[in-house]
Design goal:
Elements: H1 2-14, H2 18-55, H3 58-69, H4 79-103, H5 105-116, H6 128-149, H7 156-159, H8 162-181, H9 186-195, H10 197-220, H11 229-267, E1 278-282, E2 285-289, H12 300-303
Antiparallel strand pairs: 1-2
Length: 323
């Protein structure tokens, strides 16, 4: 627990490091420009397509009629925008995570290793292609989980529970792997994930909650903000980038500290067992004597084979009888 809290406070302090601030500018420019461009050219067309699909659904029309009956006459106008946000924002979050993992995490790990773990050897047990495949596979699984659980997000309690679990699992998988990829071998990485799995998952879950609380609140009250969606989505993505940078720092501090402990344990020789002893009972007392080493025959004597055992001494003759 102490190492977990220590790495947490170090990650908070490192967020204000000038190099971390400078590194965050590139993904902000990439994702901010991408979201603004896509929103400018495709938001209206996508919104019209979603509305046309909803209008052809009898269930949606019945729900709109029910909303009008309870006094929410204008709420149906925002249903299409709400649904579009449900679809767009998770996809943008996954892309943001991949951009941060590609552009920020290696430099962040190098910064942490240089300042805290200068003596920790970089063994580079995994290649960049392995890291790319790992990140893409984890993102694909998270995307499937998001699509499967998407209908449950309409239930108010679950929208505050399911997204943090999915984002936390994805953050743990990608960030923890990238934090150790440059320094650990495959065997060492497996040891760290096995011995420190609980704290690493906890870091991912806490980060996932921070990543999900903003869009969860946004979607829960999206009827108030959907008109500003083209502006709010880039702002939300920028906050995601800062949260991912913090998570990357936290995983780097904790993962490298755990790797250092694992290497020290692996380098420590196992304790030598105590020498074998023999216990002999002599006249009611116990005496401990070391074992007698075997005699090794070398040279010409080795060809004669083992030495024969001496014959037992003959018994003395019985005294003659006299009459």
């Amino acid at each position: 627990m102490s190492m977990l809290l220590n790495s947490f406070w170090r990650a908070v302090i490192y967020c204000a490091h000038p190099r971390v601030v400078a590194l965050s500018l590139l993904p902000i420019l990439i994702m901010g420009g991408l979201s603004l461009t896509l929103g400018y050219f495709f938001w209206d067309d996508a919104l019209l397509a979603v509305r046309s699909e909803l209008q052809s659904s009898d269930m949606v029309n019945a729900m709109i009629f029910w909303l009008q009956g309870i006094g929410m006459k204008n709420l149906h106008q925002f249903i299409a925008a709400m649904l579009l946000l449900f679809l767009v924002v998770p996809l943008m979050v996954i892309v943001t995570l991949l951009v941060v993992a590609w552009s920020m995490t290696p430099s962040i790990v190098t910064l942490v290793a240089t300042r805290r773990f200068a003596k920790l050897e970089r063994k580079k047990g995994v290649s960049k292609m392995d890291g790319i495949l790992w990140a893409l596979g984890s993102s694909g699984l998270a995307g499937v989980a998001l699509l499967v659980s998407l209908p449950l997000w309409l239930v108010p309690p679950l929208i505050l529970l399911l997204p943090p679990l999915i984002w936390g699992w994805l953050t743990f998988r990608v960030m923890a792997y990238d934090a150790l990829a440059g320094h650990a071998t495959r065997e060492e990485m497996a040891q760290v994930f096995t011995q420190y799995q609980g704290p690493l998952v906890a870091i991912g879950m806490i980060s996932g909650y921070l990543l999900a609380v903003v869009p969860s609140l946004l979607w829960a009250f999206s009827a108030m903000y959907v008109g500003m969606a083209p502006i709010l989505v880039p702002a939300t993505i920028c906050s995601y980038i800062l949260m991912f940078a913090f998570a990357s720092l936290w995983f780097a501090h904790y993962g490298l500290a755990a790797l250092e402990i694992v290497r020290k344990k692996n380098a420590t020789p196992p304790p030598t067992p105590p020498p074998m002893v023999q216990t002999m009972q002599l006249q009611g007392t116990f005496q401990v004597t070391p074992p007698v080493p075997a005699v090794l025959l070398t040279g010409p004597a080795a060809a004669l084979g083992p030495m024969p055992k001496p014959a037992p001494a003959a018994a003395p003759p019985a005294p003659a009888k006299t009459t």
